[in-house]
Specification:
Number of helices: 5
Distance between the termini: 33 Å
Largest sheet: 5 strands, mixed
Shape: globular
Strand order of the largest sheet: 1-2-5-4-3
Order of helices and strands: HEEHEEEHHH
Helix content: 25-40%
Radius of gyration: 13 Å
Length: 127
C-alpha cells in the first residue's frame, strides 16, 4: 500500500464497522490497480437498518480521526452505501447485494490487507 495512513484508516473503519456487527469484513489493497484510492474495505450488514448504522459508524469514526468524507453514495437506502475518504473507499452492503455484486471476485488479484478485529475492537462493548 502506498501509505501507512491508508492502512491505519482501513483498520479504523473496520473497527467501527465491527462495532456495529458488520460481517465478512475484508480489506483489499488496490493501490497498484487504481490511481484514485489505495484500499477498499468491504463489509456486510444483516439488514437495511444495520447497513445504515455501519456506514454512519464508519463515517463518525474517521471524522473523529480527522479524515474527511469526500463523497457518500446510497445514503439511507440500506442496500449499498459507498463512503469515499480518498485513500480508502468503504463499501457497506446488505448481505444479499454483496453476494450479487461480488466485488471480491473483481479484485481477487489484489492483495488482502490484514485486519485485527477482536472483541477489543468494540464488538463486546456494543452488544
Amino acid at each position: 500500500m502506498k501509505t501507512e495512513a491508508a492502512h491505519t484508516q482501513v483498520q479504523q473503519a473496520a473497527e467501527a464497522a465491527w462495532s456495529k456487527n458488520a460481517a465478512d469484513v475484508v480489506a483489499i489493497d488496490v493501490s497498484s490497480r487504481l490511481p484514485l484510492t489505495d484500499a477498499f474495505l468491504l463489509v456486510s450488514g444483516s439488514s437495511e437498518r444495520n447497513v445504515v448504522a455501519i456506514a454512519d459508524a464508519v463515517d463518525d469514526r474517521l471524522a473523529a480521526e480527522g479524515v474527511g468524507l469526500k463523497r457518500r453514495e446510497g445514503r439511507g437506502q440500506g442496500r449499498w452505501e459507498l463512503l469515499d475518504f480518498g485513500d480508502v473507499v468503504v463499501h457497506v452492503f446488505h448481505q444479499e447485494d454483496r453476494a450479487y455484486y461480488g466485488l471480491e471476485r473483481l479484485w481477487r488479484d489484489c492483495p488482502a490487507i490484514p485486519l485485527d478485529l477482536s472483541d477489543d475492537a468494540g464488538r463486546a462493548a456494543a452488544s
